Amino acid sequence: MKESSDTRVLPSTPVDRLRLYGVFFFFFAGFLYVIGGLVYRQLIQSNDLKEQSDTQSRRVVLRPPARGRIYDRNGFPLVDNRARWSVKADLASLQKEFRAEYLRLLAAEKAREAVSIDREKLMEDARVRVLQGWLNKVWFVIDETNRNTKGRNWVAKLTPVTAPAERQINIDELRKHLRERRALPFTLVNDLAFPGAGQALTADDGTKSVARFIEQFPVEGPIRLDQDNVRTYPYGPMAAHVLGYVKDTDMLPDNVDDISEVRVESMQRLRYTGKTGAAGVELSYNNILSGRSGWELWTKTSSGYNQTRLKFSEPEQGGNVMLSIDYRIQQATESALGKLKDPQGNLLPAAAVMIDVHSGEILSLASQPSFDPNRLADRVSSKYYDEIEKTGGWLNRATQGLYPPGSTFKVITATAGMRKKVVDWDDVLDCGPFFRVGNRDYPEHEPVGYGEVNLDKMLAVSCNVWNYQVGLRTGIEALAAESRRFGLDAPLLQTISDMETGGLPMTELPYAASRGLVVPDRAYKLRIGAGAWNDGDTANLSIGQGYLLTTPLHMACVAASIARGETRTVPSIIHSQERTGRHIGSVPIGLNADQLEALRGGMVRCVEEGTARVARIPGLPYAGKTGTSEYFKKGEKAHLAWMIGYAPADHPVVAFAVLVEGQTDTNTWGGKTAGPVAKEMLETWWPIAVKANQDENSKAPR
Amino acid sequence: MGWAWLILLLATYPWLLGADLASDALASSSLIFFLSGTCLVAPCRRLKRWQAVLFAACLGFLFEARRPIPDGVLALSLVAIAIFLSSNRQLLRNTPGMLRAAAVVNVSCCLIWFLASSYGSPSPATDLAGQLFLQLLLAGIVGTIGLLPIALTQNAVLDRLSIPPAPDNP
Amino acid sequence: MDQNRQGARASYVALAVFVALWILAPSAVRRFNREAFVEFQAPALHLLGKSRDLATFWEKKSRSVEEMAAAGRDLARVNAALEIQINKFEDIRRENVRLREITHYNVPAEYMSVVARVATRDSSSWWQRIVIRKGRNDGIRPGAPVVFGNTVVGRVTAVHLTTSEIDLVTSPGFRCTAYLEGDDQNHIVLVNGVASNSLGTAKARVSVIPRDYSIPAGQPARVFTTGMGGVFPSRLILGYLDGGTYATQVGNFKESLLVPSRDLYNLQEVSVLVPLHQNPGEALMQGDQFQ
After folding, report:
1. Which CATH number is C198's domain given?
2. CATH topology for A327-373+398-693?
3. What angle do CA C203, C204, C205 make, to 5 degrees?
4. In degrees, to the nearest 5, what angle opens at C-alpha A77 toward C-alphas A71 and A81?
5. CB contact under 8 A, B126 and C197
6. Tens digit of pLDDT for each residue in A63-108?
7. Confidence band, pLDDT 50/70/90 cuts, at residue C70
8. Residue of chain B minimizing CA distance to C158
9. Number of domains in chain C
10. C241 and C155 both lie in a single domain
11. Which residues touch C60 (CB under 8 Å, ≥6 apart)?
12. Which domain-ending residue is among C83, C107, C131?
């Protein structure tokens, strides 16, 4: 026990004491180091750091906000955000694994006695291999077929591999990520609920894969679960043209200036992917919907990975927008349009609009073919893009489609004639099978002609000859002036105030018809170099053919105006309780009571016994006017089927317009083709209106 | 006697178990009665260095076994402390010295345990400073008070094993 | 003296060498070491649990006969009510099985229930655990859900021969999906244990609550398991949302705290639901090889 006897002696020499203190110092330094580590890791994060001038070690990560919701007029969400769960790999904490894999690969390379070793390539391989390993684990957990589970291989063998591309690490994406956003975690699975190219693995809308990951994947480790928002359109392609869709944007949000710690030059290197509206209301109300971006300030390591979050600001969701659309009517409209098919079974291009007669609010606005904005909200495949392009799905036919209005224009011809006093409501004109203008016969669509025709009968049977006569008597100037009075030359949906758009001139729906509307007159024909105006042109215009081009929305507004006995209806896609029912530029129609009565009566007769009788709704008398105009499709003649009108006949509430683009091989005819669509729209609307009326009455004080 | 350290460990274990039982009652506060450091003090006065080292390692591993902290952190720290104490027995010369040593060693070990858990945990805990303070305070108090009965037990065992008494026994 | 110093120095060097070896050692060595110390302690833990049972037994024994009789009477009443319910459920269960057979619907995960006594508890700022007196020998496997009645206690994190460790719902290592009471659309939310702060009650965090969710008035909203993740059976109670007031807006979702519906620290007995078929998560925990 020599040792113990030695210990009796106190350290006497200064050297011994020094050693003792040395040991103490060693321990003290060690503790200091670990305490420092603790403070750094756990405490500093919650405390604000003092301002530091050095931004080299800082990095800002912007967090895109959730966009506001879009509701229908009853408060049903038409556009919402759903939680998206993504799986991300934290590259900083994977560094060690990368390194180990790299060394293993290097050793293998050396063992092979390779002539030249590309170390860059090896490092990349190492990264891919490590990430692939983790991705395999993720798929192993979320894929219910449980590939790799012992004893269940036969199940796996029988089930085809879903989403093979998504099960592999995309090397290009990884390269791009390391180049541009090394600081951010690398996304392994973009959307857990729909991991395979936007498809869920099972029929249960993807919740299961999310839940499986959450409950079965280890909580610790470099693989993180992330939640954010993705735009969702619960009704799929419904009202897609109104709602629009969102796309990625690299534009920095305007509140980035809040982050004073970041110098300008480092901001420029910052990449940001937020969402911005690309069409429809998503685009025109982008300022309201987009919200404010959040940001996080991170320190970064020398290799560029993020390390510690110093400061952050949470993103703020954008404001909501309430549309005037009623999703029930919208649905009915689209399902009615969906029944229109050509002999090959393809959908016929078509459009339909229903507006509130008094407020001008649009209750439904549909255009066919359409697209599913859900499939454009996140990682758009160019295949889908091309598909929409090919079918012509991008065009909003209700507001952008320019068509000759055909016989639906006859209500304007009649109004112009009566206002110019060249014809009165009870005048009877003799209408044969054709009408000669100059040296050309303008035909009636009825081979034997209609004989004696007054205004009422003209509207019911859509007599052409009556209109040729009245049109020529009225003259092109008065006809064109009347068209302008009804606003056929004026762009619609242009009423967003500057305040709402932040000073940008904007329309309620972007690309709403503002260009290309044509109300022809002498000057127009000269301008396009087609020569001087002649009576034949006037005859054509009087039945809505020829140069005249308008949109279904315009014709719905014409119907609404007639229903109110006015000239203009300013439609709006936004629901507001404060609408007065006054329409800018609108004046009384300028017909006496008898004339107006006859005009409306003729339209009602059109539905009851005329060209639109297939669309008759027992118990709901309404006014309508059909039209069939000719157009050329790839050099061949085809027909456009139109129907406009308002309902109910005695005190109008809604007005509508339907347009169907017939093909060369389809038998398209105004009432027959467009009528059933109008009928279905009204049949859906009617019970809703009745119920709303009852609710209103029961609420009223007695 | 070669197995003295193991016998001593078995004799000390009930105290550790007792501490666990007491911690159990404290479970909702997330504090524990930490005694591993204190248990090291008395044996380091009398055991040979290699025995003290084995004793310390087992003590550490016993504590670590059921807790998700990095393997060996506490055990190896205890070993380092055991080496230090057994080479500087003059520090444990008298009762105040032992008490002081118990407090310092216990608090230090507790700190090491705390930090090790903090590093091993997936998410940063909230209000850690307060928790750390409370835990260290508790470790200091428990370590000092617990030394007396533990040292008495251990000394009694060592006496029975006829390990020579420590020099300068107070 | 010098010899002693040198001896100490040699010891430190030896320690340093050992530390280096320890760090480089294969994880199997460290795992074996840990297991060995756990098994060494296992009998003591059993003893600990048994002694607690004994204490409870004597405590119960000291109750008066009248008290016991009253309790027995109440139990009999409850039993009668439950008897009726069991019959009803049995009918429903049969009907369910029949319908599943007709529609070839997936049979949900089946479990083997292992009842276990609690040996000891262990909590810190980073984990809340209990140790139970059943282990690998009793068929318990890591990852299995642990329940008491219809409430979730936690999940098995480590299994030893005769003991197992369970991460409580409030432990940061615990994560599962849940439905909220009063959310008709059944959005899934995330329940994640949070490290408790000193002397406070341990809670769990409920996150990714839809923005427009509001806690139904009247009673605290219950939080249920979804049964979607393949680990927990559905409709088990995880706990309650901590008042309406705490729900805060975090980013685009709301967040709240979950109060466990039972005092998890006073449990005497739990059931471990060991799935009959191994799920992928379990395979991951055991570190199986992939592709």
Report:
1. 2.40.10.340
2. Beta-lactamase (3.40.710)
3. 130
4. 115
5. yes
6. 778 888 899 999 888 998 888 888 999 888 888 889 999 999 999 8
7. very high
8. B66
9. 3
10. yes
11. none
12. C107
Residue A38 distance to chain B (closest CA, Å): 7
Q: Return the residue of C nearest to A227 by Cα.
A: C208
Interchain pair C251, A215: CB under 8 A: no
Interface test with A, best of B73, B88, B158 (most A CBs within 10 A): B88
- pLDDT per position as a tens digit, A137-156: 888 888 766 554 444 455 55
- For domain A58-87+222-320, give the CATH superfamily: Penicillin-binding protein 2a (Domain 2) (3.90.1310.10)
Chain C: list its partners (3+ Cβ pairs within 8 Å).
Answer: A, B
Q: CB–CB of A9 and C232 under 8 A?
A: no
C53 and C120 in a single domain? The answer is no
Residue type, A19: R
Q: Considering only the beta carbons, identify the residue of A7, A146, A214 that sits closest to C280.
A: A146
Q: How many CB pairs under 8 A join B and C?
A: 133
Strand partners, A640: A629, A661
CB A243 within 8 A of CB A237: no
| Closest alpha carbon within chain A to B126 | A42
Minimal C-alpha gap between B115 and chain A (Å)? 7
Chain A CB contacts of B112 below 8 Å:
34
Kindly list the domain boundaries of chain A, sorted by start residue.
58-87+222-320, 91-186+210-218, 327-373+398-693
Residues of chain C in Cβ contact (below 8 Å) with chain B: 4-5, 7-8, 11-12, 15, 18-19, 22, 30, 33-34, 37-38, 40-41, 44, 48, 120-129, 131, 157, 165, 172-173, 194-202, 265
Buried b (16+ CB within 10 A) or exposed e, A559-583: bbbbbbebbbbbbbbbbeeebeeeb
Tokens of C33: 């070491």
pLDDT, tens digit, 9 for 90 and up, residues C71-95? 999 999 999 999 999 999 999 988 8
The ipTM, to two decimals, is: 0.84
Phi/psi for A22 (5° steps) reads -60, -45
Contact between residue B1 and residue B155 where contact means Cβ atoms under 8 Å apart:
no
For residues A688 and A328, the answer to whether their CB atoms sit within 8 Å is yes
